[in-house]
Structures are given as structure tokens and as C-alpha cells.
Design goal:
The complex is a heterodimer. Chain A is α+β, with helices and mostly antiparallel strands. Chain A has 19 helices and 30 strands. In chain A, the strands form eight sheets. A seven-stranded mixed beta sheet of chain A has the order 3-5-1-13-10-11-12, sandwiched between helices. Chain B is built from five helices and five strands, in the order ββαβββαααα. Classes of the chains: A alpha+beta, B alpha+beta. Chains A and B meet through α1, α17 and β30 of A and α2, α3, α4 and α5 of B.
């Protein structure tokens, strides 16, 4: 049994007390003395030429301080992209400028054209209505395949086409894959769409810029998953502010799911304007604004081919994907369809030859970037859907077809450049089938049939690459940053500890789980350990939280720093007890000398470190504070089996999800309660993608799902209780905690399970439907039944 | 401008508000009660639920001027007199009914109102009642459990699931 508050215990979250009592401090809760309000005036057309902006009437409105347009940003950099992809022909991706405010052209609905800054938000909005903006509409580029044809209108006039890059992976395997497919006994082909989604953290984005003239220091309060990344990108590339003059604070953040990784124009604007106006400037996104300015997710169109030999062993996979970049390159956009997607195309299966082609395309839509899972859900969806189709074509069980091709020996080097360290896919498959009572399914299906319903069972098995990422590797792959993590462990004289982590918590409960780790290592009560995050002036340079990396990378940095603390504390303890350092043991907060009854308490040692009267000053410095930067040796590879049972009403196409089971292998687990909550949330978002959510544009580029009236967010009535289990554990071999990360799994593994279940139900009802594009709304399911 | 006088969490407050000022903005900006949140602009998400004269109300769908003379309760006033969490608040912590915390004040206020009108709701009744409150983090699983537990009904221990 884990001890209360220690590693492995479901310790209640300490941060909950402030969230439950209304005393959390989110960015919009921050109001600075004399602050002004910014209102962004955004394009209501998808593509157009800006002929002129007349702000005279707006400037004359009450309370208006200034109206900003692109000409105020001459000499200021564009919003940068943090990743470069190289095309098959060796050329770098096409990388357009992304100005803070639109220059000459607008390129998507929501593209910011001007900003009105006023004494109150109401005044800023009123004045925005008085702004005269002359825009000449241009044809919108919406369909990716049309966009890259000769003669298509260009999103960026200075680029040669709308093709950002054409990426082949692994290019050396291309011919061998083609031959294997040509020679195969059977090839299953599936064309599918991975629908565009909006992350929709419940807290809209907010930015508050402040400028301290006396010290020439800038502060930005922002809703970010990674304040240091924002400081780096905005300071170095947009505004030219050196790091020591720029502080970025991301306080309590109300969910991220990827959308709050990226550096956005509004952050640069508020920081810039605060200096210009010598007053704090605040911007709070409305939800409608969030739909047209937060980076979107997914939006892939893919053809996948799976080749098999006569015994149904997988012999090759080939995919061709069109990936929508939107109108500009968001921070990590180019990496999502490539290194976060192509490298996962092996899934859990020993397919010897794989070739992935990705064409990234500019369109007149909101930029697309990482959303929970980022590339890995797209890979998993293709693979797990095509396997189900293949099983049907070959007349075998989809479960057995998966099992037959499972990777069983580790480490396993895939043909797509990654090496899985551990896993036990049969174990998670066994577990999920047991949880879902697969054995009893046929009887339940019979019962549904009697009720005029079609019951289906869907299975999916996923792998993901988390713990992002080894810096030297991602550098070779085009990243313009390192992906280590940092931690400073500051032990105070009385023995209490502040841990400054580069990770950021926006719902994941780090303040609790990280404290569990440090307190257990030392053997003190978890309440003696505080976790500090989200402020570049307090924490060491860190890369933040995304890609399920916090415990695997940030936690490892914290362990390394704590190990340094313990090593130094043992030296001090040895001096105090006049013993040899090698004989000192630390247990339950007491230092003892092996084989003796001598001991000193943790607090005695920490006090000695700061009051070094009896202290080995000739050997070590006073004080007890250590920093570690941890750069992972490999990705981590969580995996799992997900099962879903649905009932379809064939008369209406309505799908009811009756049960959902998830058996995940996350390696070691620090706080099971938090881990289960992460899976619940991920599965709910996967459900949203599979069954309800769709970010829809019309042919002219109008965003027609820009509010909660039109974009279907899953609600409590839409979802069942979930069965989740993480008892299958193959610990990660290369980080000190043996952890793999759990944040994205649910969103990665669940969409194909939902869709496989519906397709299974339809087949059981005699409807030969091979695929329905997500979301599986009643309309789409009913139409598929009618057309079958 | 309109002069308003109302009671918020048991204390009398006064204010000068524009006709268009929403109750949620009066609470957040004038009274600095920032526990009530704004998650949308179409009265869909429920992050701003407060109680007005004992009834749950979306504070983004009511003008501040309309609250003149009303008794308003917000998340800041939910704790017990000794500062300890209310039964509903404590159940949310015990059952991990929140993650990022942004929808939480609205969820707690909605749940408190539900239990007042229906002290032992079924799972289906809880889900139905929460239809006007969106959570993006939890998948609602643990929110439903928290409310079941707050109503004194048995819920399985986390580890047993």
C-alpha cells in the first residue's frame, strides 16, 4: 500500500480548495491599476484585400485612447513558427509571415485587422462599430486538394503556391512499400477524414500587458501552458525584448488541451501596447472570438492502404494525408502531421514496411495546430479503422487480427524511426475485454435486436509517443527549441521545500502529484512541499506542459534536483554525526548512520545548511538549493486497449453509447485518482470528436460553428460513466520514475473505438457500411444506412 | 447609470451600473468576486451560475440592474461559517469532481440548487440537471459522482473502479 500522500496514493488535490471556494486566480481575475481594455476588430470574410481603414470616427468616441492597425507594427516581427519541415525534394517548407495585425490582406474569418483600446471594454466595443474598414473580397481557398492545383487563388501572394510542404517518411522505404503492396495477398484501403475540432478549454484566452518604465521591464499575464516558451518566442522574435526585461506569468489556467501552447498575436499586442500607452492593457477573449482565433485541431484527409500476406500478417502500410495548416503557421503546426503522426503509424503492430506522405496546405481558415493528442489521434484513427475493415474483408475477428500482429518483444524499433521501450499489448487487450464483458456481448446484442436496435462492439488499441522529447532528436527533425524540462528544489532552513518547476498545471493537479514525489523521496509530509509554476521570474527556464510530458520530463527533472539535494544533505548529516558520508541513510525524514543508533532529523540538517556554525565549509557551500535540467533519452510509449458498446436506432440513426472501457498502460502511476480523471476527460473529448463535434466552414470560408449554439460540446447527458483501469504497468525504462504520461491517451484511443462500434452495429443489422466520417451524428448514420 | 442595492453572500452592497451591465460583470468587476466565471457569450456554458433569491441563474443572462433588491449567493459564500468547505464543495474535492477549476463554481452552484430541490437525485437526474453546465476536463464522470456523494448516496471508491 502506498503511504498517504506518497507515490501511488490517491491524494486529494490541494489546489481544489481555492478552485472550490472561488479564490483561484485566473488571468481575467487580474486587474491592474489604470488598466485599459483592448477590443480586436476581426475580419468577417475569409479572404480579402484591405483597401483602407479610417479610424477618425472611432478615435473621437468617448473613452477611446488609441486605435492600432498594422502600420503601428512596422518594424515589429511576425508571430513565429517553432518547427521547420523539409519537403521530399529537400526544400524547406514555405513559411509565410504572420503579422500581429493583418497587413494588406485578411486571410481567415477572425484575422485581426485593428485594435481599439479604451478606458472601458464597453467603450472599446462601441468605438469598434465606428471603425470604417474597406475590404475587397477575394475568392476563398477552402478545399485542400483544390488549393494545391495550378491556378488556385493563393492565401499568401508571396509564396509559390498553397503547398506548405510535401513530406515523405521514410522516403528510403517508399519503393519497397510500393512493391510490398503490389505483391500483397490482400490490400485493404480506406479513405477518411479526421474532422476539424476546436479545443475549447472552458476559460477563454486572456492577456494583460504591463510595462514598468522605471526599470524598462515588461510583464505579460497570459493563459498559457508554457510561459517560458511565450517569453522566448515573443521576446526574441516579435517584440525584441531581452529575457531579463520580460516576465511572463501564467497563473491559474482554466484548461489548455493544446490551444494554450502557442504564442498568439493578442499576447504580443497587449505587451506592445502597454509600453506604447504607458498603461496596462487587457484583452479577454469572448467565446465567439475564441472559435475564430484559438488554433484549431486535426483536419486531415487521408487514404491508408494496409497490405497483408495470405496468413493476415501485416506486410506494409502506405498513407497519403492532406493536412490543413489554416492561413498561417501556428507555433508547432508543421510538426503535428509529420513527427507526431508519421512516427506513430506502426501502432502496436509489427508491420515491417511503412511509408507516410503528408501534404500540408494553406487555406483561408483559422490556423491549425496541436490539440490533445496532436497527430497521434490521427495516426491511431487511420490504423484502427483500417484494421477493422481488413478483418471484415478477411472474415476474421478484429480482436484476433490485432493480436496476431501485436509487437511482443521489446525494445522494438519501428520502421518509422522510433523505438518502443516497453509494453504488453496482449495484457491491455485481455484486460479491456474483461472489463467490457466481451464474452457476454452476443447475448446483449440479441436483446437489443429484439428491441429493434442494433448493438455494436468496437475495439481499438493505441500507442502514443509522450514525454516529449529528446532535444538532439527533435533538433534533427526541425524543432527550433529544446524539449528538456527543469526544476529547482529550494529547501528552506526549517525543512520545508519550494519546488520551482518548468512544467505548468492547468487542470492536471501538479501541485499535488509533484509534491507526492518529492515528499516521498525525502520522507517528509507532503504538506511540507509546495509546487511553484507559471512565472518566468520564479521558475527556471522550462518548456511547459503538453504532449503528456509533465511527469515524465518535468517530474524527472524534479527527481534529479531532489537527488542532488539528498546527496548534499547526506554530506551535512555525515559531518553532524561525525560519520562517513557513505554510511548515511535517509528514511522517513531521518538521517542515520548504518549499523549505529545515531540519527539526525531532516530539519536539523536543513537548519545547519543555513546556520553553518558546525558545518563542513571547507568541502561544501552553505544553503540547500539545487536545479536540474532533464533531457529525456527517448519518448515514452503509453498504450492501451479501449472498448465501446453502442446501440444504434436504425430508424433515426441515433447512437447511444452504453459503455466504455479503457485499459491503459501508463507505466508507474503517481496519483491514481488524477490519472483516472485524465482518462475520463480524454475519452470525453474523443467521444466529442467521434460523435458530436465538428468545426464547420461553408464554401465561402464563413465559420458556421462559432458558438456553443452551433458547435456541439459534449454535455453530461451525452456521456456514460466510464470504466478505467491502469493495472497493466510496464514501467518506462529510461526515466527515474518509470512513468509514461496519461494526459492524451483518452483522446487518442477512443475515437476509433466509438466508430468501430457503430460500424459493427450496422453490419450486424445487415447494413454494409464501411465507414462514416466523424462526427457520427444521427443524420450521417441514418444517411449511411439508407445508402447501404 | 442606475443605482442598485442588493445583498451578496449576506452582505449589503450598492453600485452604479450602466443599463447594459450584466450581473456577472457587476460581481466580477465592481465587487471583485472573481469566483464567478464567464466561459461563453451565449448563456450555454454555466460557468457563471449564481443563486438569485435562492434560484440558480446564469449571471451572464441577467442585467445587474435587474438584481436590485435581490439576494445573491456566489461561490465565495458557499463555505461553512468556520471556513470549511460546504458538503457539495467537499464532495467535489473528495471525488475529484474538478480539474482546471474554471467551470467548477458554476457546477457547485448548480449542484447545490439541485440538491435543494431534489435531495436524492438519480444519476440520470443529475446529468439532466447539468445540461446547462459544460465541463471540458472531467467528462462529467466525477462530477456526477461528487453530487451523488454530496446527497449522501453511495458511490464506489475510486480505487474500486
Amino acid at each position: 500500500m502506498p503511504k498517504d500522500g506518497g507515490i501511488g496514493s490517491s491524494t486529494k488535490r490541494r489546489e481544489d480548495v481555492r478552485f472550490l471556494s472561488g479564490t483561484g486566480r485566473y488571468t481575467d481575475d487580474i486587474n491592474l491599476h489604470g488598466q485599459l481594455y483592448a477590443h480586436f476588430v476581426r475580419s468577417d470574410v475569409a479572404h480579402g484585400k484591405i483597401n483602407g481603414i479610417n479610424a477618425d470616427a472611432a478615435m473621437a468616441m468617448p473613452g477611446v485612447v488609441r486605435v492600432f492597425t498594422a502600420k503601428d507594427f512596422e518594424g515589429v516581427g511576425g508571430v513565429p513558427c517553432g518547427w521547420q519541415i523539409t519537403s521530399i525534394d529537400g526544400s524547406p517548407m514555405q513559411e509565410p509571415k504572420h503579422p500581429v495585425l493583418a497587413e494588406g490582406k485578411v486571410r481567415h474569418v477572425g484575422d485581426p485587422i485593428a485594435v481599439v483600446v479604451a478606458e472601458s471594454l464597453g467603450q472599446a466595443r462601441d468605438a469598434a462599430d465606428a471603425l470604417e474598414i474597406d475590404i475587397e473580397m477575394l475568392p476563398a481557398v477552402m478545399d485542400m486538394k483544390e488549393a494545391i492545383k495550378d491556378g488556385a487563388p493563393k492565401v499568401h501572394d508571396d509564396l509559390s503556391s498553397n503547398l506548405c510542404y510535401d513530406w515523405g517518411f521514410v522516403e528510403d522505404n517508399k519503393d519497397a512499400v510500393a512493391k510490398a503492396i503490389a505483391d500483397a495477398d490482400h490490400v485493404t484501403t480506406l479513405e477518411l477524414v479526421n474532422n476539424r475540432l476546436v479545443a475549447n478549454p472552458m476559460e477563454p484566452r486572456v492577456a494583460v500587458g504591463d510595462y514598468d518604465m522605471a526599470n524598462d521591464e515588461h510583464t505579460l499575464y497570459t493563459t498559457s501552458q508554457n510561459p517560458h516558451v511565450i517569453r522566448l518566442l515573443m521576446g526574441a522574435f516579435v517584440l525584441g525584448i531581452p529575457e531579463h526585461k520580460l516576465r511572463v506569468v501564467a497563473p491559474d489556467v482554466g484548461g489548455g488541451f493544446g490551444a494554450k501552447i502557442f504564442h498568439y498575436a493578442e499576447e504580443a499586442f497587449c505587451t506592445f501596447a502597454a509600453k506604447q500607452l504607458r498603461r496596462p492593457v487587457k484583452w479577454t477573449s469572448s467565446r465567439s472570438e475564441a472559435f475564430m482565433s484559438d488554433a484549431h485541431g486535426r483536419d486531415h484527409v487521408t487514404k491508408i492502404e494496409l497490405a497483408m500476406d495470405k496468413d493476415n500478417n501485416f506486410t506494409a502500410i502506405r498513407t497519403e494525408t492532406y493536412a490543413n495548416m489554416g492561413a498561417y503557421l501556428s507555433t508547432f503546426a508543421p510538426s503535428v502531421p509529420t513527427w507526431l503522426h508519421g512516427t506513430l503509424m506502426a501502432g502496436n503492430y509489427k508491420t515491417p514496411l511503412i511509408y507516410v506522405n503528408v501534404k500540408a496546405v494553406f487555406t483561408n481558415t483559422v490556423p491549425v495546430d496541436a490539440y490533445r493528442g496532436a497527430g497521434r489521434p490521427e495516426a491511431t484513427f487511420q490504423l484502427e479503422r483500417v484494421i477493422d475493415k481488413a478483418a471484415r474483408e478477411r472474415g476474421v475477428s478484429p480482436i484476433e487480427l490485432r493480436r496476431q500482429n501485436f509487437i511482443t518483444e521489446f525494445p522494438y524499433a519501428t520502421p518509422v524511426a522510433v523505438e518502443y521501450d516497453t509494453g504488453d499489448y496482449h495484457a491491455t487487450m485481455d484486460r479491456v475485454l474483461e472489463m467490457a464483458d466481451h464474452a457476454g456481448f452476443e447475448a446483449r446484442a440479441e436483446q437489443s435486436k429484439k428491441n429493434g436496435k442494433l448493438r455494436g462492439f468496437g475495439i481499438a488499441h493505441y500507442i502514443e509517443a509522450c514525454g516529449i522529447a529528446p532535444s538532439n532528436l527533435v533538433g534533427q527533425l526541425g524543432a527550433r527549441a529544446g524539449l528538456y524540462e527543469s526544476a529547482t528544489v529550494r529547501v528552506n532552513a526549517t525543512g520545508s521545500i519550494s519546488v520551482m518547476t518548468g512544467s505548468h498545471s492547468h487542470g492536471q493537479g501538479h501541485e499535488t502529484s509533484f509534491a507526492q514525489v518529492v515528499s516521498e523521496m525525502i520522507g517528509i509530509d507532503a504538506t511540507q512541499v509546495d509546487i511553484v509554476h507559471g512565472d518566468t521570474s520564479k521558475t527556471p527556464m522550462g518548456m511547459g506542459t503538453y504532449g503528456s510530458r509533465s511527469i515524465a520530463v518535468g517530474g524527472s527533472a524534479m527527481v534529479r534536483a531532489t537527488e542532488k539535494i539528498i546527496a548534499k544533505a547526506k554530506k551535512i548529516a555525515a559531518h553532524l554525526m561525525e560519520a562517513s558520508e557513505g554510511d548515511i541513510e535517509l528514511k522517513d525524514g531521518q538521517f542515520t548512520v548504518a549499523g549505529t543508533d545515531k540519527s539526525v532529523a531532516w530539519g536539523d540538517v536543513t537548519l545547519a545548511a543555513y546556520v553553518p556554525h558546525n558545518y563542513p565549509l571547507e568541502d561544501i557551500e552553505p544553503g540547500l538549493e539545487e536545479t536540474a535540467f532533464y533531457d529525456p533519452a527517448n519518448f515514452t510509449y503509453p498504450s492501451g486497449g479501449y472498448a465501446c458498446e453502442v446501440e444504434v436506432d436504425p430508424d433515426t440513426g441515433k447512437v447511444d453509447v452504453l459503455s466504455f472501457s479503457a485499459a491503459d498502460d501508463f507505466g508507474n502511476v503517481i496519483n491514481p485518482m488524477i490519472v483516472e480523471g485524465q482518462v475520463h476527460g480524454g475519452v470525453a473529448q474523443g467521444f466529442g470528436q467521434a460523435m458530436m463535434e465538428n468545426c464547420a466552414y461553408d464554401a465561402d470560408g464563413q465559420l458556421i460553428s462559432a458558438s456553443y449554439m452551433d458547435y456541439a460540446m459534449p454535455r453530461a447527458t451525452d456521456l456514460p460513466m466510464f470504466k478505467v483501469d491502469h493495472s497493466c504497468q510496464t514501467p518506462c525504462t529510461h526515466n527515474p520514475l518509470g512513468v509514461k504520461g496519461c494526459g492524451e491517451a483518452g483522446a487518442i484511443g477512443s475515437p476509433p473505438a466509438f466508430v468501430n462500434a457503430v460500424i459493427d452495429a450496422l453490419h450486424r443489422g445487415g447494413h454494409k457500411v464501411e465507414h462514416i466520417n466523424m462526427p457520427l451524428t444521427p443524420d450521417r448514420v441514418w444517411t449511411a444506412i439508407q445508402n447501404s | 447609470m442606475n443605482s442598485i442595492k442588493l445583498r451578496v453572500n449576506g452582505k449589503e452592497v450598492t453600485g452604479q451600473v450602466e443599463g447594459r451591465t450584466l450581473l456577472v460583470d457587476f460581481l466580477r468587476k465592481d465587487l471583485r468576486l472573481t469566483g464567478t466565471h464567464v466561459g461563453c457569450d451565449t448563456t450555454q456554458c454555466g460557468a457563471c451560475v449564481v443563486h438569485v433569491n435562492g434560484e440558480p441563474v446564469k449571471a451572464c443572462a441577467m442585467l445587474a440592474a435587474e438584481a436590485d433588491g435581490a439576494e445573491v449567493a456566489t461561490i465565495e459564500g458557499q463555505a461553512n461559517a468556520d471556513g470549511s468547505l460546504s458538503v457539495v464543495q467537499q464532495a467535489f474535492q473528495d471525488h475529484h469532481g474538478l480539474q482546471c477549476g474554471f467551470c467548477t463554481p458554476g457546477m457547485v452552484m448548480a449542484a447545490t440548487a439541485l440538491l435543494k430541490e431534489n435531495p436524492k437525485p438519480s444519476e440520470a437526474e443529475i446529468r439532466e440537471y447539468l445540461d446547462g453546465n459544460i465541463c471540458r476536463c472531467t467528462g462529467y464522470h466525477n462530477i456526477v459522482k461528487s453530487i451523488m456523494a454530496a446527497s449522501g448516496q453511495d458511490v464506489p471508491a475510486m480505487a474500486a473502479e
